[in-house]
Amino acid sequence: MAIQRIGAVIGIDPHQIEEYKRLHATVWPDVLAANERANIRNYSIFLRQMPDGRPYLFSYFEYVGKDLDADMEMLAQDQRVQQWWSICKPIQRPLADRNEGEWWASMESVFYAP
Prior knowledge:
This protein is of the alpha+beta class. It has helices at about 15-25, 30-35, 70-75, 80-90; strands at about 5-10, 40-50, 55-65, 90-95, 105. It is built from four helices and five strands. Strand 2 (about 40-50) and strand 3 form a beta hairpin. About 5% of the residues are buried. The mean pLDDT is about 95. It comes from Pararobbsia alpina. This is L-rhamnose mutarotase.
């Protein structure tokens, strides 16, 4: 099975960082199950304040399915995921130069050591 490694970045409201951390310390089991059904594994989010003074979130996950677009659409249609996103999205600050249709901006993979 081929694994796709996917990274993305997004800004975060600096006044909401603790709330975002609190939410992710207790992610809803339904959301975790939906990620599993969508063939997402090893999902991680990292936080870093960059030299521009703004905080950013960096995400990484491994996709182990056969149709990423279909699985992401299935995930987006899940009602519990939609509820989760309705809480998280107002805290996030999408990058102005992200691709059309993206919320989190895609990052290019340049290295992987097996």
